[in-house]
Specification:
Length: about 300
């Protein structure tokens, strides 16, 4: 029998994209799914759009909050509690996918009983579904959880969009819920925790569409500095659990020192505070940044050459 997939669609003020999101879930070629629609007290007409799906056989629950929870990750937890599926998909309300998304990823999970997460590449699109970046890739890679964290999560969150991944309920039950205390980077810690419970499969084919638009809250979290105050805790967690050792620790630290210089912060005093905070995390802080820049440039060059030939 096909395993049941619980699809959680948490929404806040994404009415312009909501119908396309829900329809892309309901039109999946993989049909054993339950859909849970959540709204966190939106100020637009999201509630009307969600309510229009109340008679759809695949829609299990529609919950519209009277008060805003203040956290995307608390909404995730609510969805988890309401769901029954063996695997879970957080289909964010401003993204969408092709019809084969679930079929492709569920195949990876069912073939490999040890897999905690399976995720796909993502095309980047704008508010009008026009490509910003179209991803080319074929095949898949399987990592042990430890390998995935060391290789793919040292320099920020490799699963850049929650909509691109499905994961095991069994793995979910084993992890701490302290990621819900984060405002911006809880997903980064969430994927690390899940990867510690099993293998991770990355499908290079892009079946997900990650939307970039002016209603997103993440750019504000970066400019305010919140992301850097949260990710430093995750950096410390990775060091404490021996995922970052030797050169990799210096490169990961260099990545953040480089990233800080690229942000146009709301407040210059805040920027200095963040730089001073991160400098204390690792020796040779400025050298780390330049080593990372050299490595990053080399990787970009290799990628360009590969596409040329």
């Amino acid at each position: 029998m096909k395993p049941l997939i619980s699809v959680i669609i948490p929404n806040f003020n994404h009415a312009p994209y909501l119908k396309q999101r829900i329809d892309s879930v309901l039109s999946q070629t993989y049909d054993n799914l339950e859909v849970i629609l959540l709204d966190d007290c939106s100020r637009d007409n999201s509630g009307e759009i969600l309510s229009s799906y109340k008679n759809n056989a695949k829609v299990k629950k529609i919950i519209i909050n009277e008060n805003n929870s203040g956290s995307t990750f608390k909404q995730w937890e609510k969805g988890f509690e309401l769901s029954c599926g063996e695997y879970i998909w957080i289909a964010e309300s401003d993204d969408y996918c092709d019809a084969f998304f679930l079929e492709r990823l569920v195949g990876q999970l069912s073939e490999n009983g040890t897999v905690a997460i399976a995720y796909t590449s993502s095309h980047l699109v704008d508010a009008h579904n026009i490509f910003i970046k179209k991803v080319r890739g074929k095949g898949s890679f399987k990592y042990s959880g430890h390998e995935f964290i060391v290789q793919k999560m040292a320099y920020g969150n490799s699963i850049i969009n929650a909509s691109s991944a499905i994961f095991s309920r069994k793995a979910l039950k084993q992890i701490s819920q302290d990621y819900t205390a984060y405002k911006a980077s809880g997903d980064y810690l969430f994927w690390i925790y899940l990867a510690e419970q099993g293998d991770v499969v990355y499908v290079r084919d892009a079946h997900n569409y990650f939307r970039q638009h002016n209603l997103k809250v993440s750019p504000g979290a970066v400019k305010s500095g919140l992301v850097f105050f949260e990710t430093i805790k995750i950096f410390r967690y990775l060091k404490l659990h021996n995922y970052l050792k030797g050169l990799r620790e210096h490169l990961a630290h260099g990545y953040y020192m480089w990233l800080i210089t690229k942000v146009n912060f709301d407040n210059k005093v805040k920027k200095k505070e963040i730089i001073d905070m991160w400098k204390k995390e690792c020796s040779c802080s400025y050298l780390n940044k330049y080593i990372f820049i050299c490595m990053h440039s080399f990787e970009k060059l290799k990628e360009a050459i590969r596409f040329m030939f």
